[in-house]
Specification:
The complex is a heterodimer.
Chain A lengths: L5 E6 L4 E8 L2 E9 L1 H5 L6 H23 L8 E7 L3 H18 L3 E5 H7 L2 H4 L6 E6 L4 E8 L3 E7 L5 H11 L7 H8 L26 H16 L6 H27 L3 E5 L6 H14 L2 E3 L3 H4 L3 H13 L28 H7 L8
Parallel strand pairs in A: 1-4, 4-5, 6-9, 9-10
Antiparallel strand pairs in A: 1-2, 2-3, 6-7, 7-8
Helix pairs in contact in A: 2-3, 4-12, 6-8, 6-9, 7-9, 8-9, 9-10
Chain B lengths: L2 E5 L4 E7 L4 E8 L4 H16 L8 E5 L5 H18 L3 E4 L1 H9 L5 E6 L5 E8 L2 E2 L4 E3 L1 H4 L8 E2 L1 H4 L8 E2 L6 H13 L32
Parallel strand pairs in B: 1-4, 4-5, 6-10, 10-11
Antiparallel strand pairs in B: 1-2, 2-3, 6-7, 7-8, 7-9
Classes of the chains: A alpha/beta, B alpha/beta.
The complex binds zinc ion (ZN).
Protein name (chain A): tRNA N6-adenosine threonylcarbamoyltransferase
Catalytic activity (chain A): L-threonylcarbamoyladenylate + adenosine(37) in tRNA = N(6)-L-threonylcarbamoyladenosine(37) in tRNA + AMP + H(+)
Keywords (chain A): Acyltransferase, Cytoplasm, Iron, Metal-binding, Transferase, tRNA processing
Chain lengths: 365, 219
């Protein structure tokens, strides 16, 4: 539909420079420049390296996205950008760029929440989100269970990791096994040839008195490292495939068990899974299995939309426009610890004043 | 000709409009922690003061540093996005050159800005328009002898009086000076004298390659 909002979204919270363009819930372009290779030798994302790469990639990635979408920047209805949470210096590049584009084009600016964007991206794959939506977000930076009655205005945290994010645990175990960085894809691949029941690794926070929706992966990580070290100390070979499969099983078992329980407890019949770890094949398979048995409909976007990208930001921005949410002000700041409950960062003034101020009077008057 | 100049390489967040003859509007705020918040409103105000839309700008001028990285990138990415949207060139200038121009000295001198970590970014000048050395980053005590007797312009001088006894103003960068310098070069057909609009970091990113993972088994 031509009257759905056309929005460009910019994402720079970590190591991917993402620019997406959507019309309503239709994906038109998803351009990405990644600095992951530059971080690999450090074994993790180096903030200054990421920020430098964002600056270099920003304008070319925007230009590529516009070309890919076949739209003119002047036809956009708004510019959305990840305002947080994320790496402060990295976020700042995207926020500054988004402001400049919005100002030069005379379009409203929407500073939006990275986590809410991870949920909203599924609209591009499976259509409008059910309300409420239960979402499990798992990546190298976050592991959260969120209940979203309205993705533009009301996202409630039910639980989160109390130590490491799930993706971080994958990276750390990959390092112990000397498999390189990032750890998720290689562990997923090796685990397919291993036995997930070979080693009984612990399931964190699953006791009857533990917080039902919180996660902990630090104890699991230590337990896996100890197991490997004991083998090495005894001069034995480490069965890498079995370790990978058993470790991965412990992670996805807890994630899916708690997510399905949250759906049941809250009476929600849909579960959305997003974030980089949602690309894990075993997580997807086990979630599908458990959701089916629980009568819960599972929604997982394709792997390319689970990892950080600009399309997810554009998707949430389009929803902000569609629901008439107030735009952000020109003094919008990047907030590295933006709370998940802040779905976006509205301006201080009345929405009509703002629209008037940024009215199309800059470039085309 | 209508130049919009911005610089966020130092604690000053500064923007100015220049029509090729004179500065039409300019402003600076000194706040090293809020470059990202302050720049766009500053641009908006100088345009409003001059009564001109951004679309009337024919050339963008941006200070490329050297400067502490996080703030520096705000001005660079803003100029790059404006340039791409408006379809106008983005001219890079060394941030130290703006301070040198504003100092207006006709004798040899030094410009130094605060590089944090007890260091300064600095360069030598023959006069206010002629830089003699590539910008460098050093500890004041390590260059004090080499620069003895020369006036030192900028906050890098006033911060370290024992190394730089002849510290002079201006202390802070102004986009008005940067715009005036650029307007002079463009009018003289000296467009090749600009730098690419890319950051002068002068330092490698801080990044430790993690050593082998920490053993967790108690000894
Ligand atoms: Zn993410």
């Amino acid at each position: 539909m031509a009257d759905e909002p056309l929005v460009l979204g910019i994402e720079t919270s970590c190591d991917e420079t993402g620019v997406g363009i959507v019309r309503g819930t239709t994906l038109l372009a998803d351009a990405i420049a990644s600095s992951v290779d530059e971080h690999a030798r450090f074994g993790g994302v180096v903030p200054e390296v990421a920020s430098r790469a964002h600056l270099e990639a920003m304008v070319p990635t925007v230009e590529r996205a516009l070309k890919e979408a076949g739209v003119s920047a002047r036809d956009l209805d708004g510019i959305a950008v990840t305002a947080g949470p994320g790496l402060a210096g990295a976020l700042l590049v995207g926020v500054s760029a988004a402001k400049a584009y919005a100002y030069a084009l005379g379009k409203p600016l929407y500073g939006v929440n990275h986590l809410a964007s991870h949920i909203c991206v599924d609209q591009l794959e499976h259509g409008p989100l059910p309300e409420p939506t239960m979402a499990l977000l798992v990546s190298g930076g976050h592991s959260s269970l969120l209940l979203a009655p309205d993705i533009t205005a009301d996202v409630r945290p039910l639980g989160a990791t109390i130590d490491d994010a799930a993706g971080e645990a994958f990276d750390k175990i990959a390092r112990v096994l000397q498999l390189g960085f990032p750890g998720g894809p290689v562990i997923d691949r090796l685990a397919r040839e291993g036995d997930p029941a070979a080693i009984a690794f612990p399931r964190g926070l699953t006791g009857p008195r533990d917080a039902p929706y919180d996660f902990s992966f630090s104890g699991l990580k230590t337990s896996v490292a100890r197991w490997i070290e004991a083998r090495r100390a005894a001069g034995e070979d480490v069965p890498v495939r079995d370790v990978a499969a058993s470790f991965q099983e412990a992670v996805v078992d807890v994630l899916t068990r708690k997510a399905v329980r949250a759906c049941k407890d809250e009476g929600v019949d849909h579960l959305m899974i997003g974030g980089g770890v949602a690309a894990n094949s075993r997580l997807r398979a086990l979630a599908a299995d458990r959701c089916e048995r629980a009568g819960v409909r599972l929604r997982v976007p394709r792997p390319g939309l689970c990892t950080d990208n600009g399309a997810m930001v554009a998707a949430l921005g389009a929803e902000m426009v569609a629901r008439n949410r107030p735009a952000s002000d020109w003094d919008l700041s990047a907030d590295s610890s933006l709370p998940v409950t802040a779905t976006h960062v509205p301006g201080h003034r009345h929405p009509h004043d703002h629209v008037h101020e940024v009215g199309k009077e800059n470039l085309y008057s | 000709m209508l130049l919009l100049a911005v610089d966020t390489a130092t604690p000053a967040v500064t923007a100015a409009l220049h029509d090729g003859v004179s500065v039409l509007a300019a402003e600076s705020q000194v706040d090293s922690r809020r470059h990202g918040e302050l720049l766009l409103p500053a641009v908006n105000r100088v345009l409003a003061e001059a009564g001109l839309p951004l679309g009337a700008v024919t050339d963008l001028v941006v200070g490329v540093g050297p400067g502490p990285y996080t703030g520096l990138r705000v001005g660079l990415v803003t100029a790059a996005a404006f340039g791409s949207t408006l379809g106008v060139p983005v001219h890079g200038l060394c941030t130290l050159d703006g301070l040198a121009y504003a100092a207006g000295l006709d004798e040899p001198f030094v410009v130094a800005t605060d590089a944090r970590r007890k260091e300064v970014y600095w360069a030598r000048y023959a006069d206010s328009r002629t830089r003699l050395t590539e910008p460098a980053v050093d500890r004041p005590a390590d260059i004090a002898a080499e620069l003895a007797g020369l006036p030192v312009v900028g906050a890098g001088g006033t911060l370290y009086p024992e190394a730089f006894p002849d510290a002079r103003g201006p202390e802070h960068q102004s986009a008005a000076a940067l715009a005036s310098l650029a307007a002079g070069r463009l009018a003289a057909g000296d467009g090749d004298a600009f730098l690419p609009a890319l950051p002068l970091y002068l330092r490698r990113p801080d990044a430790q390659v993690p050593k082998n993972y920490k053993v967790v088994t108690p000894k």
